[in-house]
Design goal:
mainly alpha, globular
Length: 79
Amino acid sequence: MNYNGAREEFRQWLVKYTSCDIQDAKGSEGGWPCGTCVMNLLDSIGLDSSKEEYQEHNEELDRHNEVWRAILQIRDAKV
């Protein structure tokens, strides 16, 4: 598995569907979208905090923030 390639495709997908690439990341040749644009995309594709599924978890959390934090970790990780 080419994890660097997967991360790059993920970055390109995010940029394609947010139309945003204003943030830089370590080891990345292209820009990444900002948090506001990613949150808007998540809302637009169905991550709805008013739905029952959104509230299902073991501890209190903000699922949008968790996804964004995961993206931040992924984009800066060395794989």
